[in-house]
Design a protein that fits this description.
two-stranded antiparallel ribbon, five-stranded mixed sheet, 167 residues, disordered N terminus, single chain, 7 strands
Length: 167
């Protein structure tokens, strides 16, 4: 959602700057225009269309400690994500990113993150998303969203993120 907001702000800024541009009809006479002769200014008309963001993060699936199975709540999130993916049409790709909290070894967390990503991918496939459109990656404990050493923080980091990219 943050990426969508950033993209929208950048597009609005670009449209605003484009709308403010001016064209001087005869650049050769620009100096004479500044000297007091009449000036004709043509403003460009800009049409702003709704842009489809190139990349959107969908709902985040959380996992229990040392688990990679989907809870009923997690399945609801994946089902909602699947509806959004299907609404994107045919020109998209999906990456499921498996993440872990910072406890455990690097190797253990990479393997657990991969299991989590694959579990989410398998459920997307069961919901009708083509397997060839979905890739997985495990970041283990390398991409935390919370940095405190508390139970609630660790719970936020045990997740699978789904990123939808328009091709």
């Amino acid at each position: 959602m943050k990426n969508l907001l950033k993209l929208t702000l950048v597009l609005a800024l670009a449209a605003g700057l484009t709308a403010c541009s001016k064209n001087v009809k005869d650049d050769a006479n620009a100096d004479a225009t500044l000297a007091g002769t009449s000036t004709e200014m043509v403003l460009e008309e800009t049409t702003v269309t709704e842009a489809i963001p190139a990349q959107v993060s969908l709902g985040v699936v959380h996992f229990a400690l040392d688990k990679s199975t989907l809870t009923a709540e997690a399945r609801k999130i994946v089902e909602a994500n699947a509806q959004a993916i299907k609404a994107a049409g045919d020109n998209y790709s999906v990456v499921v990113e498996g993440n872990c909290d910072d406890r455990g070894t690097i190797a253990y967390n990479i393997a657990l993150g991969e299991k989590r990503a694959n579990e989410v991918k398998a459920y997307y496939v069961r919901l009708g998303i083509p397997a060839e459109k979905i890739s997985t990656v495990s970041y283990g404990k390398e991409k935390p969203v919370c940095y405190e050493a508390t139970q609630s923080c660790w719970a936020k980091n045990r997740r699978a993120d789904t990123v939808l990219t328009a091709n």
